[in-house]
């Protein structure tokens, strides 16, 4: 036993090998060598033969390579959910990426007025485009929609009451709960109605001298069906005007175009919300808008101006990269090219016939374990909950089970994320760039058909 331990090479010996393979900082190399040696000792203690120098050095090399790999990595989303918070939500358009790259590389006029040669405002860069794309009098971008809601409530309702329907006092995901945000803002929540039914009278009866606002919240991640009632926005707008309180509309996804044109259930648009009488309409930049993470506040001029002057505008401000990407994204809507330019809409516009051959190629790469099935792509991001876009998926079975296969595909480089449904692994081509099709087929082939060659022939 002890002689086996003595056979394990020294840190010096492992370092000697590592030095031949690139130049790692000494402290990191020593650390990796020690870790690899500790693992070798553990293996010996468990009854194995001592690994040789080459094996331990290779282990140390792997440790160093993993260390150097960025923590945030690109991956292939074959899950069939277009907007997933866990996967970074909306991929950006080429135009947005180019704008970000340019703003990142150089100095910019972020807060510099080029006409006057004097200090300017970062908020100026988004106002005009937000006005054009939503019909709002004015608009402001902050860190995200949660920040937008927090800020609106703090500026206009702190120490006062905000009326919310019980059916809308929801948790959106990632522990984001409307009642919690209200409490954090210093506003007092007044819940009205019931989970499934709330009427205009419920709101009307709750209005007091303490009421600052009525808050409407898009339910986003669930549906209430059957015996339900919810007032039209216009009815609430009339009530709010009559009593001189604000009507705030948290739209969540912030859609700027008609989703029905893509064959998906109608999603309320920002323009509809504002035209319907909301004083302020809030939405995310990285959901259906298809832009960078940010929260947009649009609506009445004097309200937005008051927010811009508030100290929170400084604390929650967006950086130059987000502004660059947001402007480029909004420009696509102004130009009417969002269907071609913005990945979210490009994916939704793909025809089922275009997807079938791609799903088939993946199914064939799996050999006997694969077939194509009809399925649904989900929008995600809180839009059109419960409905999807018809698609074709590759459905794969593996002897070791669908969860094993899902795990093995996550180890591909780049990782591939799929979903398990009824014991099968489903891969949806709608959310995968065509340039990644070959990578997916190869990974499937290696895992299920015993080699890359089988995959690339299909
Ligand atoms: C997603 C969502 C939010 C949170 O938006 P973030 O941009 O993630 O902060 C708030 N409200 C609703 C209704 C949502 O759907």
DSSP strand tally: 18
Number of helical segments with 4 or more residues: 20
Helix % is: 40-55%
Shape: globular
Whole-number mean pLDDT: 93
Radius of gyration: 27 Å
Strand order of the largest sheet: 5-13-12-11-10-6-9
Which tags fit this structure?
458 residues, alpha/beta, seven-stranded mixed beta sheet, five-stranded mixed beta sheet, 18 strands, disordered C terminus, binds pyridoxal-5'-phosphate
Secondary-structure topology with pairs:
Blueprint: H1 2-6, H2 11-19, H3 26-45, H4 53-68, E1 76-77, E2 81-83, H5 94-105, E3 112-113, E4 118-119, H6 124-134, E5 138-142, H7 145-157, E6 161-165, E7 171-173, E8 176-177, H8 178-185, E9 188-192, H9 200-206, E10 211-217, H10 233-243, E11 246-252, H11 270-275, E12 280-284, E13 295-299, H12 301-309, H13 311-315, H14 320-335, H15 338-341, H16 343-349, H17 352-365, E14 370-380, E15 383-396, H18 402-410, E16 416-417, E17 419-421, E18 424-427, H19 437-448, H20 452-457
Parallel strand pairs: 1-16, 2-14, 6-9, 6-10, 10-11, 11-12
Antiparallel strand pairs: 3-4, 5-13, 7-8, 12-13, 14-15, 15-18, 17-18
Helix pairs in contact: 2-3, 2-4, 3-4, 5-14, 6-14, 7-8, 17-19
């Amino acid at each position: 036993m002890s002689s086996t331990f003595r056979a394990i090479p020294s840190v010096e010996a492992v370092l000697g090998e590592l030095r031949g393979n690139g130049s790692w900082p000494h402290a990191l190399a020593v650390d990796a060598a020690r870790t690899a040696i500790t693992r070798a000792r553990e293996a010996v203690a468990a009854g194995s033969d001592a690994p040789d120098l080459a094996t331990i050095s290779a282990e140390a090399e792997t440790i160093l390579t993993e260390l150097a790999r960025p923590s945030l990595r690109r991956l292939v989303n074959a899950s069939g959910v277009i907007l997933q918070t866990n996967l970074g939500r909306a991929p950006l358009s080429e135009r947005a990426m180019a704008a970000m790259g340019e703003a990142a590389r150089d100095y910019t006029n972020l807060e510099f007025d080029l006409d006057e040669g004097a200090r300017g405002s970062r908020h100026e860069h988004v106002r005009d485009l937000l006005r054009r794309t939503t019909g709002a009098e004015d608009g402001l971008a902050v860190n995200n929609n949660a920040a937008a809601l927090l800020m609106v409530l703090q500026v206009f309702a702190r120490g006062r009451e905000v009326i919310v329907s019980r059916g809308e006092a929801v948790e959106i995901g990632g522990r984001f709960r409307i009642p919690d945000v209200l409490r954090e803002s210093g506003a007092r929540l007044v819940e009205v109605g019931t989970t499934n039914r709330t009427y205009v009278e419920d709101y009307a009866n709750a209005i007091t001298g303490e009421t600052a606002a009525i808050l409407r919240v898009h339910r986003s991640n669930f549906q209430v069906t059957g015996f339900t009632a919810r007032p039209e926005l216009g009815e609430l707008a009339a009530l709010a005007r009559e009593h001189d309180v604000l009507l705030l509309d948290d739209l969540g996804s912030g859609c700027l175009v008609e989703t029905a044109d893509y064959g998906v259930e109608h999603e309320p648009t920002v323009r509809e919300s504002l035209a319907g009488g909301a004083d302020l309409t809030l939405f995310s930049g990285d959901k259906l808008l298809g832009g960078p993470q940010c929260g947009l506040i649009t609506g009445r001029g004097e309200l937005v101006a008051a927010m811009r002057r508030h100290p929170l505008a400084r604390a929650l401000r967006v950086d130059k990269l987000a502004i660059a990407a947001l402007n480029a994204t909004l420009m696509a809507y102004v130009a009417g090219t969002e269907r071609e330019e913005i990945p979210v809409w490009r994916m939704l516009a793909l025809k089922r016939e275009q997807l079938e051959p791609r799903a088939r190629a993946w199914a064939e790469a799996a050999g006997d374990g694969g077939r194509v099935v009809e399925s649904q792509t989900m929008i995600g991001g809180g839009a059109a909950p419960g409905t999807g876009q018809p698609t074709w998926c590759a459905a794969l079975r593996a002897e070791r089970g669908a969860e094993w296969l899902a795990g093995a595909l996550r180890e591909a480089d780049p990782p591939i994320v799929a979903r398990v449904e009824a014991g099968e692994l489903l891969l949806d081509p709608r959310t995968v760039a065509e340039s990644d099709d070959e990578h997916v087929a190869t990974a499937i082939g290696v895992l299920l058909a015993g080699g890359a060659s089988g995959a690339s022939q299909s």
